[in-house]
Amino acid sequence: MDELLKKTVEIVLEKLDDEIDDITVERAVFGLFFSGVKLSTGHGGLCFTPVKEMPEAVCCPSSAAIMPLSGKLSGVPVKQYLDDIFCDNVLRRTLGIAALNALSNLIWEKGDCEYKPVMPRDAFDEIDVTKYEKTVVVGALIPMLKKLIAAGSDFKILEQDPRTLKEREMPFYAPAEDAHKYVPDADLLVITGVTVLNGTLSHLLELAKPDAEILVTGPTASMIPDAFFENGVTMTGGIVVTKVDELLDIISEAGSGYHFFGQSAERAVIRRD
Question: How far is CA 101 from the centre of its chain?
């Protein structure tokens, strides 16, 4: 599992100290696009739902095997969810990261942090792609790809599944395993937050050159960014939950950002000083 997650969990535990022992998960939801939790403190957090990483979940017996705790997710100490971040079960990791993001929301509200999210702010709007000679995008981040194509930029898209790319985007495609060929030359590196979930973010940051502009963005990356910034990231983009029950209702009905931005959650950015 990614070392950045381990460090982030350590920071959260340190900041909340004994308070975390009294915090439980009041509600947990798996949605088609997002998964989320509500804490007993009233704070919520999201994570990307890794549907493609669950090929075995195609019938009732195998689905039961991949999520054996269904029906038993409420009232559980949040520290147990944090432990699940480092287990082999991808769905339990997903809810663990959602809980970590919810705890980050609590820490921001308490003011016990060096960095706070600015919202509503879209991370993609914060970047002028014309300033960078070479760009690498990790993941099919469509808004960024549109900007780069429109600007005539020199860029590569590192993606595990090329089927997620449109025909006009394919000339820029490179397999994810070729990161070592392209990331070291990138002046701008835009990384999907899914790399936090699948444990590949630390390796990508190790490949990046020291002066690169590095954005990590997506619902999965909606956590306190201290460990990210210590390892070269210059900006994170995420989602701050503002009305947790309303949001969980929406994602439980296969809702996406189109259904909740500006109503029960906001896009947010945090930039390293």
Answer: 9
